[in-house]
Structures are given as C-alpha cells and as structure tokens.
Amino acid sequence: MTVMQQSSAPVWPSTVAEVGALATDLVGVVDRTGILTVLCRRFRNAFGVNSAYAALNVPEASEAVVRSSLGIRTEEFRALQLPHGVGLGGVVAVEGQVRASGDYPSDQGLRHTELLDARVRREGLHAIIAAPLREGGALVGAILAGARFPRNFTDTDLALAASLSDMASVALTSAAKVNSLRERVQELEQTQSRPGLIGNVAARRSALLAHLASDACRDEGCFARRAAAAGISPAAEFCVMAVELPMYATPDAVTRTCEQIIQIGGMALADDGLLLALTPPDGPTVTQVRSAVQGEHHIGPNSAASRPASGAGPLVDALDRARLAVQLLTAVGRRGSHRCSDDVGPLALLAASIDQAVLSTFISRVLGPLEDLEPARQHRLKTTLDAWTDHGGAPKKIARALSLHVNTVYDRLDQLEEVLGPRWSSGPRRLEFETAVHLDRLVNGDSVEPAS
C-alpha cells in the first residue's frame, strides 16, 4: 500500500488541467449527489480505470457507505458498506490521507475481512486509489477509483487524487452553504408574519436575496412574483457584491449596513461570514460598504463586486461569482483586497482548492522564463501573452486589442517562441500556458474596484 506524503506531491500540467476540468464540470452543481456523480466520472477518467465510487461516513455505524458510483457491475457493490479502518476506503474515510494499492486482494498492508474481500473479488477490482472527502473541514468520506488489473500508482497519481478530492471538498462545502441559505429563506419567510422582529419589506427583500443566493429562484417567473411582493421591479438593475465579515465586524455595524442598503431600494443579507448585497447602480459602492463593515479597524475585509445585472439568471450567476471571488482572496492569503467578480470563472474554484505552494510552483515553472527578461521587453511580451490568451491566439484580434499592427503581433509571437520554447502555443503546452495565465491573474492580480 502506498501512502501520500506531503513532500511527494509534484506539480504537473496534467494535474492542473484535470482539476480545471473538474472545476468546469462542477459549475452550477449545488447538491451533494450531483457533485459526487461528477467527481466519480472525473476520478475514473483521470486514472484511466474501470470504475469509481464515493462513500460517505455514517458515524453512528462506524462505516462509510457507497452513495455514488460509475462503472460498477455488481448491485451489492453499489451499496457497499466499508467498516471504518477496514480495506482501503475504510481507512481513508477516517484517517484522511490519500492511499493506493497496486493489487488490493494481495495487499497485506491493509486490514481485510472475508465479506469485503468477497465483494471486491466478485467486482473484479485489483488496483485501487482512494482520497478523502471533506465538507467544511470535516472528514465526510472517501472517493475511490479501481482497475480490474494490478498496476502501480505513482506520486503524480497520488497528487492528482489529492487535488481532485480537494476540489470536490470545496464544492461540497459550497453546497452545504447553499442548503444553509435555503434554510435561511424559510426562516425569513416566517418572520414576514411576525411584526416586531423585522419589517415586512426588509424580510421580503432578504428572503428574495436568499432565494437568489441559494439558486432557488433562477426561473424568471418565480423571480418576477417574488420581486413584486418585495416591491422591486423584476427588470431593475443591481450591482452584486459580497463582503467578508471578519471577526472584528460587530453585529450592530452589519445590521445597520444591511438596513441602509434596503432603505435605498437594495437587498442585503448576512450569512456564513459574508454580507451579500444587491445595490442600485446609483447606490453605495463596494468601497462604502467595506468601510461600514470595517469601522475603525486598520485592515479592511476582502470583497468582490460585479457590474450592473438584471434578471434572475444573471443575478444568480453574479452572486455565485462574487462569493467565489471572496473565497479565492481568502484562500490565497489576501487581506483587505477586492476583485471584480465579472472576471472570475471556474478556475477560481481550482485556485481556491489547490495548495497555494503548488499553484505558485506551477505558475513560476510555466511563466518563469518571462521573469528573466529586462523590464520593458517583459512587459511587452506579458501583455501580448495576456491578449493571446483572451483572444484565442488570433493575431488580428490581438492586434486590435493592443492597438498594434498585425505584423508587430507576429513579431512578438515569434519572440515568445524564443523565450518559451517551440510549440508553446499548440497541443498540451497551449492548455498549460492558458491555465497559467488565468491562474496568475486570479492569484496575483491587482485589486480593482469595478466600474458601475
């Protein structure tokens, strides 16, 4: 049996690409079952094996039970019970380390039982790799991939398994927050008929925002009805913002800020360490909301905001991106930073889930040759690489974006080939550079307040 050590996790482009693909697949998936289904598919494909299955802990029974699977043949295996500490999955589900076995039936480094071995034998599995699943920091189970033939798993495989499970854990945590918001919706709806706790208008607007934030009101008809009940035009434009609520943020300051936003026709809700707000385009800016939350403290909160949006779908998407942007800033150790959430996509989930040392190493390895250039040339080529990434490598589009003659663009692309090496812009290396550029922007980009 092979156990992953922290120091044995190399950084490979394939790892980042696979995790990026999982991040893309998970966009919009907000329920636990859906997340596990997507994860099983990606986990199986990543290792080129026959099957994958996810088991969740049942603490009172001291076991993990398979809840989702792909490529499993036998019915008994689809509901397999893994006693804690037994077999590969039973160990990973309680110890929380990535482990692998090249040939499970003959692996004497694991604890076996006759029942479990018989079911593995009938399923025909030999090589198995397993990684822990977490939700909000708590260990909740394991994800496993199995092959019907013996094989060795490398350090790269172990690192990939860890990164994929980290990504899934971020998604599971987000799904739990969505469920919490949906429970908050029910609480807020109950307060609408209980005067003295909160005004009806405030309650309805907070409930509408909670519906949007929990993706329970993406339908335009549902949104129109709820918006009308809250005294809001369904066609109204709002800037969407998420502001971190640090430990020093007092409840009074947060409540006052929410009330002020609601009084000028917006919506505001404090939930799970974030202040979510939809403000009219001429309402308070994110800087003003940050200041209200910050008070006298010398370091402001992390925040993200969008340009004006209207309608259920765009507002739901903007809320998702704003929360993800703040999560990213916190994950990479930023304090008092701001991001325009319009620029945040699925790779932000990747950046927030992978260890920051791993991310930094990957970015430095891919883009490092540009750092050795003299400043003026470095700026020219970095700007060109950014535009190349944004415009699909099309020279004419790059030229328009940079206000250059197309021949100048061709010359700069030739210079990039000299610096980055041949075939940097095609095949696997193209994906590597595109990913590195996007991640570098997310992790190291400047804080900029969006235009309203």
Account of the 3D structure:
- By secondary structure, the chain is of the alpha+beta class.
- 52% of the residues lie in helices and 15% in strands.
- The protein contains 17 helices and twelve strands.
- It has helices at residues 13-26, 32-47, 75-78, 87-95, 114-123, 155-191, 200-213, 220-229, 251-263, 286-294, 312-331, 346-353, 356-371, 375-390, 395-402, 406-420, 427-444; strands spanning 2-3, 51-58, 63-70, 81-83, 99-101, 127-135, 138-147, 239-244, 267-271, 274-279, 303-305, 338-340.
- The protein has a seven-stranded antiparallel β-sheet with strand order 1-5-6-7-2-3-4, with helices on both faces. Strands 9-10-8-11-12 form a five-stranded mixed β-sheet, with helices on both faces.
- Strand 9 (267-271) and strand 10 form a beta hairpin.
- It is globular and about 70 Å long.
- Mean pLDDT is 84; it is low at 5-11, 194-198 and 448-452.
Task: Write the topology of this structure.
Layout: E1 2-3, H1 13-26, H2 32-47, E2 51-58, E3 63-70, H3 75-78, E4 81-83, H4 87-95, E5 99-101, H5 114-123, E6 127-135, E7 138-147, H6 155-191, H7 200-213, H8 220-229, E8 239-244, H9 251-263, E9 267-271, E10 274-279, H10 286-294, E11 303-305, H11 312-331, E12 338-340, H12 346-353, H13 356-371, H14 375-390, H15 395-402, H16 406-420, H17 427-444
Parallel strand pairs: 11-12
Antiparallel strand pairs: 1-5, 2-3, 2-7, 3-4, 5-6, 6-7, 8-10, 8-11, 9-10
Helix pairs in contact: 1-2, 1-6, 1-12, 1-17, 2-6, 6-7, 6-12, 7-8, 11-12, 13-17, 14-15, 14-16, 15-16
